[in-house]
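Hi U.,

Before I forget, here's the chain from the pilot set. I'm dumping it here mostly so it's searchable later in email.
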Amino acid sequence: MERSEKTGTPDRRVVSIFGRSEVGTAVIDAWTTVCFEGLLPNRLKEICRIRISEAHHCGYCSTVRSRVAQQEGLTESMIAELWDADSSDKFTPREKAALRFATKFKESDDAIDDDAVIDDLREHFTEEEIIELGTMCALTDGLGKFTKAMNVVTWAEACELNPALRERGQTAAS
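Structure:
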């Protein structure tokens, strides 16, 4: 709970659910390690997390925010441009490459099984960073689907909290 309060994600709602199980607690520990340790900045990992979360309409994951990423400069105006990041001037070339990868990762099981996708990453990331980014995307996709199923925050509730999600959600669906 202390790490959750400090970082802002996952927040106490999800920690209290996962904390009912020894394995769930281990998953939260792993999640926190992947999000807030390693080589990549949290801001980069957070934009990928949000992009994937909005793509599968997880109300909880789409509305919770990392305090660490906010301290690293992530703003809601940047988040509003995640779906058109390649043409935005708010993201670095590394962040754009990471978002392209996250988009492909969420797109289908085979979308990242392409040399061009990995070559794009290699222009901006080391092998170790690619592993970290892939692990982040995998955890986000899998845990996000499970969290969505728990209805901690429904998509409809999330859209009430943040009306911009409705429009971005329609973009994700198309």
